[in-house]
Design a protein that fits this description.
The chain is mainly alpha-helical. It contains 13 helices and 14 strands. The strands form 6 sheets. Strands 3-4-5 form a 3-stranded antiparallel sheet. A 3-stranded antiparallel sheet has the order 12-13-14. Strand 13 (354-355) and strand 14 (361-363) form a beta hairpin. The two termini are 14 Å apart.
Length: 396
């Protein structure tokens, strides 16, 4: 296990950065007091460079604020801003058919609506966290409604996946992976154990269709029956995505009294994808890899994005917490050191999001439609909580 001094040092970093840098940056720069909601497209200094509003990020930041209120401190500011988020979601982000938009204008007018259903999953966790904070049943119902839409569209073939002919049908790991953590959040905040059945279903889906023993890899895309597709899409691996999924499963293992089968599954996913994703030349987690080691067609395949590093920090810590294996403590030190050397902007606050393979900054912006206050604050919070549990174990 880590020493108590190491644990306390890491707790200070994760706690203090979260509360003194990350959250204040977004509260200062993203709140739209004129039209409601938040503007996440900001430059290095936090100045707004595009006023379009991402629905994903609105749900995510609302969840972040509600979760901080529920699990860190009942600060009136956080609750007020979470209300600011749920109000905007309800007023502007739903289409007439009950589905949600992907982006809207500053004023809340719809711009784009996608086939996939992740706007609904992030709205579900936002409403659930706000319900937990307030006890207002309306938000529990909204959380359930959004989850039901996510489940229906995410598990009905052809509704959310890109349209293909009968000659090329595929499905991705995104639905079962995000489904697990969404159901976990609703189970916790609505105090409703019925969501465990969905978690079981999606874990089985990952085990059956996306765990590839032949390649020792977690596949990102497979055929509709889990078959390997020897094409660009089928060979493409997303190590950060799979590692994120690994800690969702490890989190479930902890909820089930350290279930050994789930720990074995989660650590196997982490082990495989660390080996595939860790850049042995420069450090950090690469964005895309080919399962056969062939060239990847996406041009950003060797860049270092912020969020795979976030998810790997959580996963390595959680694996060490649950197993005591020193390997995971070493991996956590490696990913922490590389990430904190390159991503945080100590002058202007928050993190850069996009680096070249060697760690050079690609673009200095702090937020856009994809990057907002979610992966980074969630990493800080989850790491802090994991370390606090490890610290408590020293007292026993």
């Amino acid at each position: 296990m880590m020493t108590i001094n190491q644990i306390e040092d890491y707790i200070k970093i994760y706690r203090d950065d979260l509360l003194e840098d990350i959250i204040p940056f977004w509260i200062k720069n993203s709140i739209d007091n004129e039209y409601g909601g938040f503007m996440f497209c900001v430059d290095r200094d936090g100045s707004v460079i595009d006023t379009d509003k991402g629905v994903w990020q609105t749900g995510r930041f609302t969840w972040t604020l509600g979760t901080l209120y529920n699990e860190v401190e009942q600060k009136d500011e956080w609750l007020k801003l979470a209300k600011h988020g749920v109000d905007f979601l309800e007023k502007y982000c739903f289409d007439e058919d009950g589905r949600m938009f992907f982006t809207v204008t500053k004023e809340g007018n719809p711009i784009r609506k996608r086939r996939y259903c992740f706007s609904e999953s992030f709205a579900a966790i936002a409403f659930a966290a706000y319900y937990k904070a307030t006890g207002e049943e309306h938000y529990a119902e909204r959380a359930r409604e959004c989850f039901d839409i996510f489940f229906r569209y995410g598990t009905t073939p052809g509704l959310t996946e890109p349209k293909f002919t009968e000659h090329r049908q595929m499905k991705g790991m995104g639905i079962p992976m995000i489904g697990i953590v969404t159901a976990q959040e609703l189970r916790k905040n609505l105090q409703d154990d019925s969501y465990t059945q969905y978690i079981d279903q999606w874990i089985d889906e990952i085990k059956k269709n996306f765990i590839n023993e032949e390649f020792q890899a977690v596949m990102e895309t497979v055929g509709t029956n889990g078959e390997f597709l020897d094409h660009f899409d089928g060979r493409l691996l997303n190590p950060g995505h799979a590692i994120e999924g690994s800690w969702f499963i490890l989190q479930e293992a902890r909820e089930r009294n350290n279930d050994q089968e789930l720990i074995a599954l989660g650590t196997k996913m982490l082990d495989w994808m660390w080996e595939i994703g860790w850049d042995k030349e420069y450090g950090g987690i690469l964005y895309f890899r080919d399962v056969k080691g062939l060239p990847v067609q996406e041009y950003w395949q060797d860049m270092k994005f912020w969020w795979p590093q976030n998810e790997t920090i959580i996963a390595t810590l959680m694996a060490h917490e649950l197993t005591g294996d020193e390997k995971y403590a070493k991996w956590h030190d490696m990913i922490h050191e590389w990430t904190f050397k390159h991503f945080p902007d100590r002058e202007m606050g928050e993190w850069y999001g996009y680096l070249h393979r060697d760690g050079r900054i690609s673009v200095p912006l702090k937020g856009n439609i994809w990057k907002g206050p979610f992966h980074i604050p969630r990493m800080y919070l989850m790491a802090w909580k994991s370390l606090e549990r490890m610290k408590e174990s020293f007292k026993k």
